[in-house]
Specification:
Helix content of chain A: 40-55%
CATH architecture of chain B: 3-Layer(aba) Sandwich
Number of domains of chain B: 1
Distance between the termini of chain B: 9 Å
Radius of gyration of chain A: 14 Å
CATH class of chain B: Alpha Beta
CATH architecture of chain A: 3-Layer(aba) Sandwich
Oligomer: heterodimer
Number of helices of chain A: 6
Largest sheet of chain B: 4 strands, parallel
Strand content of chain A: 15-25%
Strand order of the largest sheet of chain A: 2-1-3-4
Largest interface: A-B, 36 and 33 residues
Radius of gyration of chain B: 15 Å
Order of helices and strands of chain B: EHEHHEHEHHH
CATH topology of chain B: Rossmann fold
Shape of chain B: globular
Structural class of chain A: alpha/beta
């Protein structure tokens, strides 16, 4: 059975924090922990299809949300995923007051740096789990 | 006061290039199209209790943009908000081989060819918005509920 930790971002499209969540997760699963983690399309999870429930149900999941609505966390839970860590982009953003983070289309140097910081936090958690 | 609005819901799928293309094409339309006000709706909010997102799509014409033929954005929008005004399956335009590419997903990895794909999908979104009957959104407003009035 696939033991990889599922890492799911909200990928919110209206604010830069959604893009930061998305890019941090992709950096983690592609570069930092490719052997131990993978992502699953949140839009697919939202459909509730049997095929995607099999991918999520009963698995350890880390969710990364860009806003307090916590859509990724809620949807992964609804799909039966075990949310072992709810990461909030804003928690890390708060540590970098005064910076401008670009647009929901493209990260700039500041948001790229904070995104990498978030990715490191996700990777640390994955290594604790696996 | 009435507003002219069209909603665009992108799947933004994280597993393959089609999701990234759908997201960036949607953003491009949002930032560059000035004919009518275009708003993006956050798909995950549909299940997470986003009443405003669901109600918006009930009042205003909404188009879904999906990266692959699973059509997650289309199906979820129709499930919670009724029939949509149009849908785009990115994989039908850029081909399955591109859309289902699981190696190139991040913005930073996109090349000139991918940027052209984004332009192509954005053009298709604009064409689809242009084909919507103005009567379907004219005179309507949005106050968060699904009544379509400005009261």
């Amino acid at each position: 059975m696939d033991k990889k930790v599922k890492v799911v971002p909200c990928s919110g499209i209206g604010k830069v924090y959604g893009l930061m969540a998305r890019e941090a997760v992709l950096k983690t699963v592609f570069e930092l922990c490719p052997e131990k983690s993978e992502t699953v399309c949140l839009a697919y999870i939202v459909t509730g299809d049997k095929e995607v429930k099999v991918k999520i149900e009963g698995f350890d999941c880390i969710t990364v949300d860009g806003c307090p609505k916590m859509c990724a966390s809620k949807n992964v839970s609804i799909a039966g995923g075990i949310v072992v860590e709810e990461m909030k982009v804003l928690d890390t953003v708060k540590e970098h007051k005064g910076k401008k983070f670009g647009s929901p289309t493209q990260l700039n140097a500041d948001s790229e740096a904070v995104m990498s910081e978030i990715a490191e936090k996700i990777a640390k958690k994955i290594n604790e789990i696996n | 006061m009435s507003e002219l609005k069209v909603g665009v819901v992108s799947c933004s799928g994280e597993e393959c290039l089609g999701g990234t293309i759908s997201r960036l094409a949607t953003r491009k339309v949002l930032e560059e199209l000035k004919l009518v006000e275009t708003v993006t709706l956050c798909l995950p909010l549909y299940l997470a209790g986003g009443k405003e997102e669901r109600n918006f799509a009930k009042v205003f014409p909404t188009i879904s943009v999906d990266g692959c033929d699973k059509l997650c954005a289309k199906r979820s929008t129709e499930k919670y908000s009724g029939k949509i005004s149009g849908f785009i399956d990115v994989s039908k335009i850029i081909g399955n081989e591109n859309a289902l590419n699981k190696k190139i997903v991040r913005n930073k990895d996109l090349n000139k060819e991918h940027l052209q794909m984004i332009d192509e999908i954005a053009t298709e979104i604009v064409r689809m918005i242009g084909s919507i009957n103005p009567d379907s959104y004219s005179g309507k407003s949005f106050c968060g509920c699904s009544c379509g009035s400005d009261q």
